[in-house]
Amino acid sequence: IDWDIETGWHDARVTPYGPLMLDPAASVLHYAQEIFEGLKAYRHADGSIYTFRPEKNAERLQRSARRLALPELGVDDFVESIKQLIAADGQWVPDAPETSLYLRPFMIANESFLGVRSAQKVGYYVIASPAGAYFTGGVKPVSIWLSTEYSRAGKGGTGAAKCGGNYASSLLPQAEAYENGCAQVLFLDSEEGKYVDELGGMNVFFVYKDGTLVTPALTGSILEGITRDSIIQLAKDRGHTVEERRFSLEEWKRDSEAGEIVEVFACGTAAVVTPIAQLKTPDFTIGDAEAPAGELTMAIRQELTDIQYGRLPDRHGWLTRLDA
Ligand code: PMP
Questions:
Q1: pLDDT confidence of residue 153
Q2: What average pLDDT does the structure give for the chain?
Q3: ipTM
Q4: What's the CA-to-centroid distance between 58 and ligand 1, angstroms?
Q5: Beta bridge partner(s), residue 248
């Protein structure tokens, strides 16, 4: 769908996949005025195709648009854009267990203008790619790496927006995580460097012995994960207390060593729920790399995927049918 300042959104269309033609002066190439979303289409046992809470992605795209001075796309237009793609290409939604079609809506500033101001021409696109099961051979707990030098987002910055720049700046710390044998990087808050923010591409939860779950509050520097929000609901449904608050690295270390924290997991659309066995830092480690996945971690993972794949009733009205 195209947008320009005179006509607003216009010319919605589905076209064959292919390269985008961009002018070398296109604003997105210089000032990173770009936002995106990530969600999945799931094939149910009867062949029908659903997606999970797409209005949440649409609302997040609107918030990202506001922060990046891009035009807001209506929630209905967002959902319709995905339905149109499925109408054209629904055969690409795989049906093997735990597979899906990953959907990537994105918006770019596409005005040929080198001055620094918000662009008056914008494009919104949706592309898709079949995704295999994230874990093959069973869910494996991972180690994560603490970035001591870099943070993901600063106060008043773009941390709560899903924009390319955030990911560009996390590539170097992410590479550091890989070098240290870890799957993902953990960022602390940028002001005090004390509080847990999130991973490079996932939110994080801590499970206490008494059944309480703690997850970092949405302070403006972390991404408002849709999986995070759904897990808070599912945990509450199970009778757990969920605390959204600032949570320090020191607390994590202390309560883990005291045996109070019994499970840690990360969550996001791609992997759903990933157990975290260990945090590695240059100075110390928390947890044991060989620790098995936690019981509640796996139960919540199972429940959420069962809802997504239609194996459990959709009691919260989270699913939207895409192929009808
Ligand atoms: N934090 C970051 C930085 C992410 O990139 C993602 C993935 N979109 C998440 C958290 C999890 O968000 P969601 O559950 O909506 O996928």
A1: 87
A2: 96
A3: 0.99
A4: 14
A5: 195
